Amino acid sequence: MSYLGTFENVEEALVPPGVLPNRARSNSTIWPNFLVGQDDKPVRVILIDDDEHMQRVVAQELMVDPRTLLVGIASSVKEGRRLIKNHEFDVMLVDVNLNDGLGFSLIELMKFQRPSAEAIMFSIMETDEQVLRAFEVGATGYLVKHSWFGNYPQAVLQVANGGAYITPHLARRLIQKFDTRNGATAKPMTSHSCESELLSEREKEVLRNVANGYTSAEIATRLEISMLTVNSHIKNIYRKLRVRTRAQAVQFAALRKLF
Asked: In angstroms, how far is CA 1 from the centroid of its own chain?
């Protein structure tokens, strides 16, 4: 199943029986006006999953939240490529395993075709290798499907505003794995110190907030600086640590105990 047309086509196909499409989005949620995802300019989302039940569940969640706008649905890698190339969007929700390939390739294509867009990978599987690979190819979120019902819009909004989102028990497990790995391959303290000195105290402070899941806007408020300054610090962190995403920066810092 693939919806490659307008949002109304998607909505008419997936809105719950007996609910009018315009009523499905009538309940406005209080949302700070400085964040991305306003009623008059919602976050545009594409959804790629070959499970029709999951398509309906996630689509309905997105449709009833006025801060998110579902603009396309696909069921395969082939259809996903068409969505990425032909649609303007802000966030892509993509399954790991599709009927004709893996979702990782779609994240890589998205990063090339739509570098400003964000990707959230979701799956019934939660192996450490899959989660890490998702972040390595550029995802900023990873959700375990059946443990995340009711929270897909929140995940979309979080990554659209510069944050990262990961199923909580996965996050804890990965942190524990990083600690174990760091203990097994510990470098002399001088090496850690040299790497740590690459970052200014303010950059470390920003990175700590990123690691705690705060968006750029939230970090700006917490540190009493502008969002432009926050984003400038984040770019400097990427350059100094030689990474491309927030998830990679946090992973690098956790492994080397930079804060």
From this structure: 24
Q: 20: pLDDT confidence band, cut at 50, 70 and 90?
A: very low
pLDDT at 22 over 60: no
User: Residue 155's domain spans which residues?
Assistant: 7-168
Sheet hosting strand 68-74, strand order edge to edge: 68-74, 43-48, 91-95, 118-123, 141-144, 165-166
Backbone conformation region of residue 258, classed left if phi is above 0, alpha if psi is from -120 to 50, else beta: alpha
Q: How far apart are CA 106 and CA 205, in angstroms?
A: 33
- Decide if pLDDT at 87 tops 90: yes
We report the CATH number of the domain holding residue 26 as 3.40.50.2300
Claim to verify: residue 162 and residue 69 sit in the same structural domain: yes
What is the CATH number for 250? 1.10.10.10
Q: In whole angstroms, what is the distance from residue 110 CA to residue 37 CA? A: 21
In a shared domain, residues 11 and 59: yes
Task: State whether residue 63 is helix, strand or coil.
Answer: helix
Query: Taking residues 129-145, what's their average pLDDT?
Result: 87
45-81 in b/e burial notation, b at 16+ Cβ within 10 A? bbbbbbbeebbebbbbbbbbbbbbbbbbbbbbbebbb
Nearest-10 Cα torsion for 48, 13, 149, 108: 10
Q: How many domains does the chain have?
A: 2
User: Does residue 130 sit in the same domain as residue 65?
Assistant: yes
- The two three-digit tokens of residue 173, written as one number: 């497990």
What value does the mean pLDDT of the chain take? 79
* Any domain includes 44: yes
Q: Report whether 83 contacts 72 (CB < 8 A).
A: yes
Do 160 and 50 share a structural domain? yes
| Contact (Cβ atoms closer than 8 angstroms) between residue 211 and residue 248 | no
The bridge status of strand 101-102 relative to strand 97-98 is: antiparallel
